[in-house]
Design a protein that fits this description.
alpha/beta; two-stranded antiparallel sheet; 13 helices; 13% strand
Amino acid sequence: MIDTGLVLGPYTLPNRLFIAPMAGVTDRPFRRLCKRLGAGHAVSEMITSRPELRDSLKTARRANHEGEPGPIAVQIAGTDPAMMAEAARYNIDRGAQIIDINMGCPAKKVCQKWAGSALMQDEALAAAIIEAVVAACQPHGVPVTLKMRTGWCAQVRNAPRLARLAESAGVQMLVIHGRTREQGYAGVAEHDTTALVKTLVRIPVVANGDLDGAAAVARVLRHTGADAVMIGRAAQGRPWLVREIVHELRTGQPAPAPTTAELRQWLSEHLLDHYALYGESVGVRSARKHLLWYLRALGGPVAAQQRLRQAIIAAERPEQQLQALHTFLDERESCAGTTEACAPQPCASRALACA
């Protein structure tokens, strides 16, 4: 079921394994790579609805969809219904084919302005925003989706009420992250709320939270009855994760690890696209996090890992980072089958994303 299509408005998404919108992560280069490696849907980083910030370089980069296969999904965030409606129209004019409303980001700088998951505390305002965005999108035939948490805190898990409200207003797909805003990314995701939402609405429901492999995906789908899943932080450094999950669910066997040739091609394409979007100076700095995530996921000889880490941080030009990556991949390949330490590193906390 996971590798069958899902209808969303006029579009049929090719499968039901999606990549979550994550601030500082799911830019155009990362979305393109994830889609190429099997993701059925990937949503942009959150774009503010504030008109005075539309001309900023940061917003312009987030709204860049050049060369990205459709449908193009753009997530917008804000607190004013009219402003959110205008943001939807603005992004549609620039290529958005699906508009996603952010009601799930727990970041303090977002919630302090009563955007993101803070909207779950004001159901009347949330309803007004949803209705305004849907009304703005309907004339263009653009479906609206909504991503939210289970609630603001453990005592107020109001996602079921908001889900019914959203469906009535015309939202065509819901994504539920199985944590409250109070939890942030701590603790374990609970999917009971998602299972309840699924019984209350007829539109597709997507489960999100702690989905790091085929076993977790299968378990959550069984438990919730969800129509799809959305993978967040587990895809950082592993954009091929969707491909692995599809293979294991289809065959019952773990997917073969990516070959060195595949890794060289995928990672090089990602970095070159990244440098093209951000420019040389900014691109080298912002690529560091992706390279360090790749390093953590791939493992390799300890000494080679240390050299790559140092080179990533010291590099001032794209070609220096690329050469360091290629050298590392060569050393990692030569290590295969030897007794030299090649294990991936334990995953550290990844707090910047709004998955």
